[in-house]
Write a structure and sequence with these properties.
Strand content: 15-25%
Bound molecules: adenosine-5'-diphosphate, zinc ion
Number of strands: 8
Largest sheet: 5 strands, parallel
Radius of gyration: 16 Å
Distance between the termini: 13 Å
Number of helices: 9
Strand order of the largest sheet: 2-3-1-4-8
Shape: globular
Length: 210
C-alpha cells in the first residue's frame, strides 16, 4: 500500500504518518526529516537545503525528487510506504508518476490557517530521530528528551512565527494545487484535523481502510 499524506505545515501529517506507519507496518518517509538530517550532517547539499528551509521556501524539485527516488528503492519500502511531505509541488507529483509509482490513496489532513499558526509555536521535534511532539497536545514524558531515542527535543529553526507565515504562503501557492491533482485521479480522501491527535488518527485510519 502506497500512501501520500498531504496537508499544510503543522496540520499534523508527520504525527499521523508515524501512527499509520506503526499500524500498517510500512515506513513513513519524511522529506523534511531527511533534509534536516542532511543539514545536520553538514553536507554541501544539506546546508544548501537548510537555507531554503529556514526562509520558508521549498527545496528545489530536482533535489527532493532525487532523495525520494533513492529512498523508495530501498528494501523496507517494497511492500509499501507513506510519503510525508512529498510531493509538495505539481512537478514533484508528476515526477512520481513518471517513476511509475502507483499511489493508492492521498490522505489530505485539513486544518484552517488560523489554527495552524496557533499550533506551531508549541511544536517540538527530536533533533536525533525526527519524532514530533507538541508541548500541549503531545508532550514528551521527560521535558526536552525524546521518548523514543532520548535525543534532544527542540523547536525547529523554521517554526519561528515569521517563517511559519511564509511557509503557509508557500503551501497555498505550491502545494494546495495537489488537492485538485489527486482529486481528479480519484485518490483524494480529506480528513478534518481534530483538536485531539487520537481523534484525527481514528479518522485517518478510517479513510485509509475505506
Ligand atoms: P512541515 O510539513 O511542517 O512544513 P516538513 O518537515 O515536511 O515540515 O518540511 C520542512 C521544510 O523542508 C519545508 O518547509 C521545505 O523547505 C523542505 N521540504 C520538505 N519536503 C519538501 C519537498 N517535498 N519539496 C521541497 N521542499 C521540501
Ligand atoms: Zn528521538
Amino acid at each position: 500500500m502506497n500512501l501520500i499524506f498531504l496537508g499544510a505545515p503543522g496540520a499534523g501529517k508527520g504525527t499521523q504518518a508515524e501512527s499509520a506507519s506503526n499500524k500498517y507496518k510500512i515506513p513513513a518517509i519524511s522529506t523534511g526529516n531527511m533534509l534536516r538530517e542532511a543539514a545536520k550532517n553538514g553536507t554541501e547539499a544539506g546546508l544548501k537545503a537548510k537555507s531554503f528551509m529556514d526562509s520558508g521556501d521549498l527545496v528545489p524539485d530536482e533535489v527532493v525528487v532525487g532523495i525520494i527516488k533513492e529512498r523508495i528503492a530501498l528494501d523496507d519500502a517494497k511492500n509499501g510506504f507513506i510519503l510525508d511531505g512529498f510531493p509538495r509541488t505539481v512537478k514533484q507529483a508528476q515526477a512520481l508518476e513518471d517513476m511509475g509509482v502507483n499511489i493508492d490513496k492521498v490522505i489530505n489532513i485539513h486544518v484552517a490557517d488560523e489554527r495552524i499558526t496557533a499550533r506551531m509555536s508549541g511544536r517540538r521535534v527530536c533533533t536525533d530521530c525526527g519524532a514530533s511532539y507538541h508541548i500541549e497536545y503531545k508532550p514528551t514524558s521527560s521535558e526536552g528528551v525524546c521518548d523514543l531515542c532520548k535525543g534532544k527535543v527542540a523547536l525547529r529553526d523554521d517554526d519561528k512565527p515569521e517563517t511559519v507565515l511564509s511557509r503557509l504562503k508557500t503551501y497555498h501557492e505550491k502545494t494546495a494545487p495537489l488537492i485538485d491533482f489527486y482529486d481528479k485521479r480519484g485518490k483524494l480522501r480529506t480528513v478534518e484535523g481534530q483538536e485531539q491527535i487520537e481523534e484525527t488518527t481514528r479518522l485517518t485510519f478510517e479513510a485509509i481502510d475505506a
